[in-house]
Description:
Layout lengths: L3 H11 L7 E4 L4 H13 L4 E7 L5 H14 L3 E5 L4 H13 L4 H4 L5 H18 L3 E4 L8 H8 L3 H9 L1 H16 L6 H5 L12 E4 L8 H12 L18 H12 L3 H11 L5 H11 L4 H11 L4 H8 L6
Parallel strand pairs: 1-2, 2-3, 4-5
Helix pairs in contact: 2-3, 2-11, 4-9, 8-9, 13-14, 15-16
Amino acid sequence: MLGEDELRKIIEGVRGRFAFDCIVPLSGGRDSAYVxxxxxxxxxxxxxxxxxxxxxxxxxxxxxxxxxxxxxDVPLVTYRxxxxxxxxTVHYAIRAALDGGIRAMADCFCxxxxxxxxACCYIAAEKFNVPLILWGESAGEYTQPMTDEHLRLGxxxxxxKQFSGAGLLYRLNLYRQRLEFPVRGNFWRNLALLxxxxxxxxxREIAFFDYVPWNRDLLKRTITRELGWKKPDDSVSxxxxxxxxxxLVTFCYYNIFGCSKHCFGYHNMINDRQMSREKALGxxxxxxxxxxxxxxxxxxxxxxxxxxxxxxxxxxxxxx
Length: 320
């Protein structure tokens, strides 16, 4: 933990230089709402909120974004693909993965968003001349090393997935997204379909929770009381409520690992004494009980898969 004093030094170095002191990427979820509150109310920064609408935002996430920006009097800039690349990327990624089974499908959902939300913050920093970006990722959410090895496909499966007809259309839409939201200085990274990097010398990006402790209870209490933040009525947890695809991720993880992706995060939170084992177990049991009708509606309605494709995915369910 670098400490709040170090963060204040960074803040004083950027304060008042331009129209905005910082950008806060805002998803409508828990952590980003807290960072927005702290930037504006606690540190008194002239803040610009930037939202990347990945085309799967939940209605509650959108309501949380508008409420927070309204209460804090923070300008909001929202980016959304005119070409629908978010939905198309997920659609074709799933279709390309079907023959490889549920392990091939488990990592289909986040590639478009992981490029888009960073790219749009960098684009906004360039456009509005903003010297600081405050990212709201927390260590509790970093679960990738726990699952990577188990989700890795063999060479033949990877080739089949990437170079099928649907796989090529998936990659085409990733390129289209980079054309629509280009980040200066990332030509070669774009060709390789890598995440963008900030090339603007006058802008610094930092992880807010490297400087300010991530306190789960304080965070939830603050955003609900001060910003009117809410989770959807049907959501078990306040975590990852901003994306409809979280239900599909949970379905995949449960049928691969026997638990949700949240469970790996709960492991981190328990070790950090941010959550009790009993609380984590209760949330985990409820999170994995996803109604089949709800999952079918997501697959057929939002992702626009064919009925036979939907049934194949439902068929990946564990047999009891």
